[in-house]
Amino acid sequence: LASGALLEAAARGVAVPQRLALLGFGDFPIGRQMEPALSTVRPPRYEIGHEAGRMLVQAMAARATPSDLALPWTLIERASTRAAAQS
């Protein structure tokens, strides 16, 4: 979605990040290749899968009811938000 928003901003003449800061989610490779490169939030993919599997096994064994779990996310700052942060 952020890649599409960046392309649409360019098509409409909206300067990124001077007039519009964009932040993606997922840290997909295309975000690094865009101009300007997209800032993103990188989820802990391995840990999400690991914890989901662990919770599923516990639930199937009736040992526990799945609960909320917070995992650390990483903010990757790239050019699509840098000027906004400097203002």
Helix and strand succession? Answer: HEHEHEH
Structural class by helix and strand composition: alpha+beta
Give the number of DSSP strands.
3
What is the overall shape?
A: elongated
Determine the N-to-C terminus distance: 25 Å
Briefly summarize what is shown.
45% of the residues lie in helices and 11% in strands.
Descriptive overview:
The chain has 87 residues and is of the alpha+beta class. Helices cover 45% and strands 11% of the residues. The chain has 4 helices and 3 strands. It has helices spanning 2-11, 29-33, 45-60, 79-86, and strands at 23-25, 39-42, 74-76. It has a 3-stranded mixed sheet. Helix 2 (29-33) links the parallel strand 1 (23-25) and strand 2 (39-42). The longest helix is centred in the middle third of the chain and has 16 residues, at 45-60. The protein starts with a helix and ends with a helix. The mean pLDDT is 91.
Summarize this structure as a short list of keywords or feature phrases.
alpha+beta, 3 strands, single chain, 87 residues, 3-stranded mixed β-sheet, 45% helix
Write the layout of secondary structure elements.
Layout: H1 2-11, E1 23-25, H2 29-33, E2 39-42, H3 45-60, E3 74-76, H4 79-86
Parallel strand pairs: 1-2
Antiparallel strand pairs: 2-3
